[in-house]
Write a structure and sequence with these properties.
By secondary structure, this protein is mainly beta. 5% of the residues lie in helices and 37% in strands. A six-stranded mixed sheet has the order 4-3-2-1-6-5, with no helix packed on it.
């Protein structure tokens, strides 16, 4: 059983899912990234939200804590700062 399957759902078809870390949004899945002939991805390419450097970021599936297929949401382990080295933007 793959790491991606043990999180509550498959990550093979998670295009467009919202992604959060530490209850803060970090982006949306642009595409899962596969290696060779694997049926489950090695990482997820995210289109990041404002405040995270770069337009895209790759996240290994080992950082996935939960997958909500019905809600099309993925929760990552750790906080936004731990994963991307930035604190969430301050709200006015």
């Amino acid at each position: 059983m793959s790491v991606a399957r043990t999180k509550g759902g498959s990550l093979a078809c998670c295009h467009g899912y919202a992604v959060a870390a530490g209850n803060e949004p970090v982006g949306q899945v642009e595409t899962p990234v596969f290696t060779g002939t694997a049926l489950e991805p090695e990482s997820l390419l995210l289109r990041t939200v404002e405040g995270i450097p770069g337009e895209f970021a790759a996240v290994p599936v080992t950082e996935v804590a939960a997958v909500d297929e019905a809600g099309q949401q993925i929760t990552l382990r750790g906080t936004r700062d731990e994963l991307f080295g930035v604190a969430p933007p301050t709200r006015p």
